[in-house]
Amino acid sequence: MARSGRSPRSLETIKSEDPTKVCSECGSKDIEYSNEEFYCKKCGLVLD
Ligand SMILES: [Zn+2]
Asked: Which one of 3, 31, 38, 40 is least enclosed by Cβ atoms within 10 Å?
């Protein structure tokens, strides 16, 4: 059995590592991805 740390379960880890972005300014989850940046569609704040 291979134990290289790449088990199919890592999918769950990826999920938790990439949570839904939330705007730190207005708390909106309406985040758009453009030009390699996330920005809030509600208030326009660019998330890092
Ligand atoms: Zn916002």
From this structure: 3
